[in-house]
Each structure stands twice: as structure tokens, then as C-alpha cells.
Amino acid sequence: MTAHSETAHRVSPRRVLVWGLVCIALVSAAALGVALVGRVGRTLDRAGAPAPPQVTQQVVVERLQAVAKLVASEMTLRDVVVYEQTRYTATKRALLVVTGRVSAGIDLEHGTGVAIDSAARRIVFTLPPAQILGVDVLDVTTYDERAGLLNPFRPADRDEIQRRVRAQLIDAARQSGILTHADQSAAAMLSALFGRDGYTVEIRRPPVERAPAG
């Protein structure tokens, strides 16, 4: 029993030492694995999950230049235009039904301010108010035209009729709220243009001075 006990006594430390080395190897392998996983994870973050894009002042300028005149609203109108002019007691008169398309929007090349808050990912635009950008006369139908021998229609009358047609179409579009709609549409378009980069868009407009009534 003494010999057996001595053999057991000699073998046991060897087994403890072997298992200890195995444990140390496993711990080292685990630590190495954690380090590798962390390194691979950081690499994947850099390669597979890029940081959100940063919008710079140059990017904003380039995108605004692409839509220098932001046509935000269009309206097709039909109206009646009456032209009268009296000369030498003779009156000439024309009644026309006109159809036109009026466009309104914002001229981004003038009066536009931009402030970028990269930390908050917010872009603040200071925009001028919307304005009429164009008038296209689509159709003019004359239903009544009368003139006298002493007061016939002249080229100057035709030019004045065209001026009145355009002015009346613009006035009708304004009364129909085209400028308010253009302001709202421009804000929505800019939000869509820069929102795809993860930025919120804030629109500010300077106060508009209005002439007192009367």
C-alpha cells in the first residue's frame, strides 16, 4: 500500500499540472478569440456599417444650384378679360376668355441663408417668400370685339390686352393662394432633398413688411 500510495502521490501533481496548463491554454485562446472578435467587429463596423454621411456647405450649395429656381407650385386658370378704350367719344371694346398656367416658387440664388449644425444633424434654411416665376398663356378666345372708325384697334391695343391678360392671370393665382402653397411645397421639397442623409430641415422666413391698408 505504501508503494501504491507513493505512486498515487507522484501521479497526482502531474495531472494537476497538465490540467492547469490546459486551463491556461483555454483561457489564453479565449482571450485571443475575444481580441480577434473585437478587432473583426471594429473592421466590419468600418467597412460594412459606414458612418452617416456629413452634409457640408459645399454639398448644400451644389444641390441648391441644381434647383436654383425652385418651382414649387403650378396652377392652371381660366378668366375673363375685358378691354375698353374710348377716344373721340368712340369706344372700342373686347371681351376675351383666357386660359393660362402660372408657376410660383422660390429663387434660391437670392436671399437664401444656410446654417448647418452637424452635431444635431440639422440644416436651417432662411428663405425669401415665394414669388411668381412664370406665366404661360395657353389659349385666348375672343367673344366680342367692337371698334369705331375713329377708334380702331391698333398694335398698341393688342400689346395692352396681352399685358392685362398676364396681369389678370397673376392676380387670380395670388387670390387662389398659389404663393402660400408654394412656400409649403418648397419646405417639403428641401426636407426630402436633405432628409435622405439623416438631417432634419428647419425653414425660417424673414418677416415681410406689408403696406398699411388704405
Task: Describe the overall structure.
It is a single chain. The chain is α+β, with helices and mostly antiparallel strands and 214 residues long. It has 2 domains: 1-51; 57-204, no CATH class. 45% of the residues lie in helices and 32% in strands. The protein has 4 helices and 6 strands. The strands form 2 sheets. A 3-stranded antiparallel sheet has the order 1-2-5. Strands 3-4-6 form a 3-stranded mixed sheet, with helices on one face. β1 (69-87) and β2 form a beta hairpin. It is rod-shaped. The protein starts with a helix and ends in a 10-residue tail after the last strand. Mean pLDDT is 74; it is low at 1-45 and 210-214.
Helix-strand blueprint:
Layout: H1 2-48, H2 57-66, E1 69-87, E2 90-107, E3 113-117, E4 122-126, E5 131-146, H3 155-175, H4 178-195, E6 200-204
Parallel strand pairs: 4-6
Antiparallel strand pairs: 1-2, 2-5, 3-4
Q: Report the oligomer.
A: single chain
Separation, N- and C-terminal Cα atoms:
126 Å
Number of domains: 2
Instruction: Report the biggest beta sheet as strand number plus sense, adding barrel if it closes.
Output: 3 strands, antiparallel
Question: How much β-strand is present in the residues?
Answer: 25-35%
The helix content is 40-55%
The general outline is rod-shaped
Low-confidence stretches: 1-45, 210-214
